[in-house]
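I'll show a sample.
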Amino acid sequence: MENKTAIITGAGRGIGRQIAIRLAEDGFNCALNDLNETDLAETKAMIDKYGVKCVTYKADVSSYEEVENMIKSISDDFATVDVLVNNAGITRDSLLMRMKEEDWDKVININLKSVYNMTKSVSKIMMKQRQGRIISIASVVGVIGNAGQCNYSASKAGIIGFTKSIARELGSRGITANAIAPGYIQTEMTEHLPEDAKQKLSSQIPLGFLGTPEHIASCVSFLAGKDSSYITGQVIHVDGGMAM
């Protein structure tokens, strides 16, 4: 993947950071996005040892204007844009009757509108190149739902529908579009859960344990590589069997 470039949103920590590291291991140059510049700098430091070009960009991906400006900068900094990983996301969990409108809007804008913003901007470049890979991180709850997460579930279900639609629109230009639906993944959020809560989560998973960011990164690596060239419009579950 020498001289190919991947854009990763939400690359400052967690799953996004691990995706960036894995793609750097694969030889991709990396354009890293996040709002937290300290987190971005830490991710970049981890990537620099792989000898690839890595540039960080602070931008709010829920803002179309900020995304447009960021993509212009990325185009100036890199020769091509070959892979887009839409990973940025937040949670604002609450039962519907208690959910504030601002928490609905925030989750939809950051999780779903960002995918529209990024994909629309990047696909213009990919269409001219007549090649590209768009990989969006959805969630198992976008398929099966989850009490207390109607905003998050709706945003992730929207990503799935969006992915299938753009796969049909962009396929003739040599661009694939796929989504990954993670299950319960060990991140900073789950680290603080009580042990009995972790056990309860594990009991819902046929394989019996929580996934890791590396599991998601491995799937991204496959979808970004040459072996996935005939796969598009798919939702790949990386969930230990939760959504069979």
Summary: The chain has a mean pLDDT of 96. The chain has nine helices and seven strands.
